[in-house]
Amino acid sequence: MKKIITALCLSACFSPIAFASSPDFPHIEVSGKGEVFVVPDMAQFSVDVVENKATAEKAKQAADKAVTGFLARLEVQGVKRENINSGNIRLTPEYRYPKGKKPELVGYKAIRNITVTVLDLNKLNGYLDKALGDGINRINHIELKTSKEKEYIEAARLEAIKDANDKATSLAKGFGTAIKGVWKISYHNNYSQPVLMKSMRMDMASDASESYQDTQMVISDSVSVVYRLKD
């Protein structure tokens, strides 16, 4: 009689993948998962420059001026231009809607988004203080990351492989048999979970530094394996 053992990885956040075809020899299907907890060492934050003026030209000029001033403040602090993405400008008309009357054009809104990559997390709060100035009164988001993501993904992958091997060996032994080899491997995409901080207003920036000092992010990986059992 053919022996088939199926193991469910209870710690995983998904059900084991159904394999397209089942081998005609004794086998066991196992899912393994690996996780690495990492302290972030870099960050990325985004701000919007918003200007409302009577004409589209004046709105654009005001937004460009605010962006130029912000970039100059960052440059003084040592931020390289390649770590700044100033984005494209968006110009939209602004209307007033009097009751019972046609909409009235009252001006134009210019919006420019700027994303800054911070390679030294210790400098993040200083950059945030400099970000909030003329034309910039809100930081959209702060995303904490790690500069060694590839290294940690590899570590999580090795943990997932070890987890699958340990489960398969233990289950096979419990049913009075042993692993003979690997028949099929299905690899799942790795998952890096950045830490997203809340957006903040100008009066909140000074309190931001305490919120990310001991934060951890999770990098995980998973794999499904069909092992051949001894006959």
From TrEMBL:
Instruction: List all membrane-crossing ranges.
Output: none
Which example biological process does GO assign this protein? DNA damage response
Task: State the InterPro entries in the record.
Answer: 26kDa_periplasmic_antigen (IPR052022), SIMPL/DUF541 (IPR007497)
Concerning Pfam families, the annotation shows:
SIMPL
Task: Name its species.
Answer: Aliivibrio sifiae
The leader peptide range reads 1-20
Its lineage reads: Bacteria, Pseudomonadati, Pseudomonadota, Gammaproteobacteria, Vibrionales
Q: Please give the PANTHER family that the UniProt record associates with this protein.
A: PERIPLASMIC IMMUNOGENIC PROTEIN (PTHR34387:SF1), SLR1258 PROTEIN (PTHR34387)
Its name, as the record gives it, is Oxidative stress defense protein
* Alphabetized UniProt keyword annotations: Signal
